[in-house]
Amino acid sequence: MKLRFFWPKRKSIVFTWLLSYSAVLFVPMLMSILIYSQSSHALKSEIHRANDSLLKQVRYTIDTQFDLMKRLNMEITWNAKLQSLMYTNIRTNDDQYLAFQLVKEFRMYQTSYATIDEFYVTWDQEASILRPGNMRDLHTAFDTIHNTGTLRYEQWLDTIHQATNNQFLILPRVDAGPSATSIAYITHLPKDLNGKQTGTVVVMADRERFEKAIESISGFSGGQIVILNHDNQVLLSNVPVTVNKNLILEQLQDEDNVTYKPSQDGESELFYIQSSVSDLKYVLIIPSSIYWEKAEYVRKFTYISILISLFGAAVLTWFFLRRNYSPIQRLVQSISDKNAFEERADGNELHFIQKMISHTRNEKDQIALQLQSHHHVLRSNMLNRLLKGRIDSLVSYEEAFKTFHMDLISNHFAVILFAVENSDSISTNLPGMDISERRKLMQFIITNVVEELVGHRQHAGYVAEIDDMMVCLVNFAETDAAERKVDLDWIAAEAQRFLTRFHMDLTISISGVHTSLVGVAEAYSEALDAMEYKMVRGKREIITYDEIRIDTADKLQLGYYYPLQVEQQIINLIKTGDIEQASASMNEIMGRNFDKPLVSLTLARCLIFNLVGTMVKAMNELGDGTTQPWLGDNPLWMDSIIACDTILEMQQELQLLLREVCAFAASKIEANQTKERTETLRELIAKVMQYIEEQYQDANLNVNTIGENFALRGSYVSKLFKDQTGEGLLDYITKYRIQQAKKMIGYKQDSISEIARLVGYNEVATFIRVFKKYEGITPGKYKEMN
C-alpha cells in the first residue's frame, strides 16, 4: 500500500533529499570504504611496482637480443656488396662471383653474432637464398631451413614477401630445438629503379633461447609473460596463454598499463609495456588471488562497518525529511493555485518552480528581441528616407538620431557606397544557407567592418542597405577638409582590402562632403553618380565624386576623337594582318578618349561600336566573297560586347575580335604569297647566317652592316630574319658568338679577355655580362667546370 502511494511521487524533491541526506550520513560507511580502498591500493601498489620491475627486467633481457637482430639486419641491408648485387646492372658471371663473396662475408657476421641462430637474404632476381657460406634456390633453402611440416612452401613465400617491413613474426626452423620455431625479424630491401622488389633480409633467433632467458629471471609468483608483435601476434609465452587473446588486445587500447580481465582460472591482472627498441609489447598476467589473499581481513571489517552505517543513515534521514519538506510543499501549493492552467507533468517540486521562473524570463527576452528587431528596422528606414531626401517625417531627424542612440558629432557628412560584385560566387562558398541568410550574413559583415573603420578615424559611421547596395553615412569629427578626404579614401581602401578575406570583391564610390542633414541626400546622389562611372573605370575600384565631377572649365575636354584618316589607317593595318600595329592604334584611340576623366558613357559605347564597324569594313574590303560567310559564323560578337558591364570588359572583347580579324586577314595574305618569294626569302636568310658565321669576329658586325652587305635596309633584314626564323637578328649574332666562345674556352689556353676579342667583343666586361645572361654563369666559372 505504501509502495503504491510513493511510486507516483518518485520524482519529488523528497527522493532527492533522501539521496542527499543519505550521502551526508554515509560518512562512516565511506570512511570504511576509504580505509579498505587505501589498504588495498597500498598492497596493489607494492605488487604493481614489483611486477613492473620484473616486466622491465624481462624487457631489458629480451630487447637486448632483439636489438642484436635489428643490428645484424641493418649491417646486412647496408652491406656494400649486397647493394651492388641488388642495384647494379652488371654481367651475369660477375653477379655470381659477387654473390659468392657476399655469402663468405656472411660467415663473419655469423661469428660476430653468436646468439643469432639463422639469417639469410632472398635474391628475387635469381629466385635464390643467400646464407652464410652458401647460396641455394628457394625450394632447397625452404627444405633446409623451414620445412618442419607446419608451414608449406607457398605460405613461406607469402609470409616473406607480404610481411610488413621491419616486422617480428614466428617462423618454423628445422634446427630450432624442442619448440621447432624461431622469432624472425624481416626487412624488405628498397625497390630497384624499375619499381620491382629486390629482396628481403630475414634474421632468426630460436624461441628456446628467449624462453631460457625468461626462466633465468626469478620472482614471477605464478605469472605469465606474453610478447606480442606489431600485429598483436603472440611471439613468445613462457606458459600457454590462459587469458582470452581478444581481452589482451582490448587492454592494449587503454591508456593505463594495468587492468583486470577474466581468465580460465578466475580473474587476472594484466601489465604491459612497449619495447624500447621496437614496436613489440610485453604483457605480464598475474592471478588476482595474490592481491585479495592479503586483504581478506580488511574486506570483512569493511562489510560490518557498511551495515552499521546504513542502519544509522536510514533513521536520521527519515527524521530530517519530515522536518524540511513542509516549506517546499507549501510553496508549490501556492504557485499551483495561482497557475491552475499549468499541468504538473514533472513531479519534482524544484523543477516545477524553475520551469515557472524560466517561462517568465523567456517571455521577457522575447519581448526584448522583438523591440530590438523593430529598432533595427526603424533605424534603417530612417536612414533610407534621409539619404533619399524625404524630409516629410513627423519627427525631425535630429530627434530620430537621438532616439536610435546615434550621436551627431558635427554638421559635416559624406556617403560611401559599397557594391558586392561577386555575390553569386560567395553564395556557392556558403552551402546550407538560403539566399536570405547569405544576404544577411554579408550585410552583417560589411556593417561591422565599415563602422569599426570609421570609428578608428574618430568619426561616426552608420550603415544601411539601399537598393542592393550597402550605404555608410559618415558624420565627421571636427577636422579640416583635406583631412576628411584623406580619411574617406583610407576607410574605403581598408574596407576593400579587409573584406577580401571574406572573398568579397567590392566597388566603392565616395561622395563629396556636405554640411547639414539636408545635404545628405545630395551626397547620396553624388555617390550614386560615382558608382555608375564604374562602367568606365571598371569594377573593384574606388571612385570618388571629385574625380568625375564636371566643372565648366572641364567641358572643353568632352570631345570625341576618331577621325576618318585614323580609321582608314587601322583598316589598312587590319588588311595586312599586322595585329601589333592595329592593336597599338586602337589602344591609342581608346586612350585619347578614355583617359579623360570626364568621358561620356554614351560616347564611350559609341566609340567601341565604331571600332567594331571598322573591323567589319576591313573584312569587306578584302573582297573575295568569303567575308560574309566568315562573319556569319560569329553572330554573337556584338551581343557579347553589348553584354559587358564595363568599358574594360568591352576593350578585352574588342581585342579578342581584333585578333581573330587580323588572323583571318594574315591567313589570306599568306595564302597569296608565291612559292618563289618564300624560297627567295629562305635563301636570303641562309646567306645572312653564312655571313654572320664568317664575320662574327668583327666587333663592328651589326644589323646595319649586314643590311649594307646585301644592299638592303638593316631594319628590313632584321624583320625578314625574325619572320622566317622566329629569332631576332642581334640575338642570333650574340648566341653564335657565345657558342664559339664556349668552344674556344674548352680547347684554348687563352685568357678570357683574348677570347672576348676573338669573338668580336672589344670590352671584356661586356663579354662577361652577355655570357652570364645567356649561360647563367661567368666565362671564368665555365672554364673551371670544363
C-alpha Rg (nearest Å): 47 Å
In one word, what is the shape? flat
Would you tell me the overall average pLDDT?
A: 77
**SS elements, strand count:** 17
User: Taking strands numbered 1, 2, ... along the chain, how are they ordered across the largest sheet?
Assistant: 3-2-1-6-5-4
SS strand fraction: 5-15%
Helix tally equals 32
**Biggest sheet overview:** 6 strands, antiparallel
- Distance from N terminus to C terminus (CA atoms, Å) equals 112 Å
Poorly predicted ranges (pLDDT <50, ≥5 residues)?
260-265, 625-629
**Structural category:** alpha+beta
Can you walk me through this structure?
The chain is built from 32 helices and 17 strands. Mean pLDDT is 77; it is low at 260-265 and 625-629. Helix content is 59%, strand content 13%. By secondary structure, the protein is an alpha+beta fold.
Secondary structure elements and their pairing?
Blueprint: H1 2-6, H2 13-25, H3 27-77, H4 80-87, H5 92-112, E1 118-123, E2 128-131, E3 134-137, H6 138-145, H7 153-162, E4 167-172, E5 181-188, E6 199-206, H8 207-215, E7 224-228, E8 234-237, H9 245-251, E9 258-263, E10 266-274, E11 281-287, H10 289-294, H11 296-338, H12 349-387, H13 397-403, E12 412-420, H14 423-428, H15 435-456, E13 460-466, E14 469-475, H16 481-498, E15 506-510, E16 514-515, H17 520-532, H18 534-537, E17 542-544, H19 545-548, H20 564-575, H21 579-594, H22 601-622, H23 627-632, H24 637-642, H25 647-672, H26 675-695, H27 703-709, H28 714-725, H29 729-747, H30 752-758, H31 764-775, H32 779-785
Parallel strand pairs: 15-17
Antiparallel strand pairs: 1-2, 1-6, 2-3, 4-5, 5-6, 7-8, 7-11, 9-10, 10-11, 12-14, 12-15, 12-16, 13-14
Helix pairs in contact: 2-11, 3-11, 4-5, 11-12, 15-16, 20-21, 20-22, 21-22, 22-25, 27-28
